[in-house]
Amino acid sequence: MSPTISSEDLYRIFKKLDKNGDGLICLQELKWLFDRVGVELTMEELESFLEKPSLDFDQFLFCYKSISKQNKGECEEEDVLGCLEEDDHEEDMEMICMAFKVFEMSDDDGFISCDGLENVLARLNEYDQRLQQSERQRKVEVQALKHQIMELENRFEDRFKTIMTEMHKRHVSS
Question: By residue range, what is the domain housing residue 57?
Answer without folding.
Answer: 7-103
